[in-house]
Amino acid sequence: MTEEDPEVHLGQLRRFSLHELQVATDSFNNKNILGRGGFGKVYKGRLTNGDLVAVKRLKEERTQGGEMQFQTEVEMISMAVHRNLLRLHGFCMTPTERLLVYPFMVNGSVASCLRGTLTSLLYQRGLM
Asked: Which domains, and CATH codes, for the chain?
């Protein structure tokens, strides 16, 4: 079995190799962790062209049909277009890894921005 399935094509999304993302994140070094969530860790990375990215390394969950489910989720995420959403930049899928690649947000995570906005709104309305 090859490390990556060359048959998987998901629209205009870039398919990254595992090696590219390992190099970008310094082998998923803990010093590059931006956050942790229920689905895995997010790492800051720098691609060889200099672009900063956030790489979400999904937790390993081996389920029947898991590869198809991952492909479907990636397709759905890539179609979501809204001015307040980050666009999915690309993905990596190997027999053992599932990774999503997003543009790096200089001002923090979406969750922290939303928390800050909510806190500010509650403060302005005298509810905090």
From this structure: 14-124 (3.30.200.20)
